[in-house]
Prior knowledge:
Strand order of the largest sheet: 1-2
Number of strands: 2
Order of helices and strands: EHHEHH
Structural class: mainly alpha
Amino acid sequence: MAKYYLDTCIWRDFYEARISEHGNPLGRYAYELILKILKNKDAIIYSESVVSELKRRYENLEIENLQRKLIA
């Protein structure tokens, strides 16, 4: 099983469905990456640093919802 560390930007891209200034669908790219990882039954890992960075922008409930999106 492979392990993938996703940084804060990827989580934000996924959650906010962000688009780059050049029109690249970063949210879709993040979604496809996460979907591929889950389909391969690989692991997504993150650190307390990522959670701490996310807490600067989101409430705890939003972070929990973000994590639930991965399970659904």
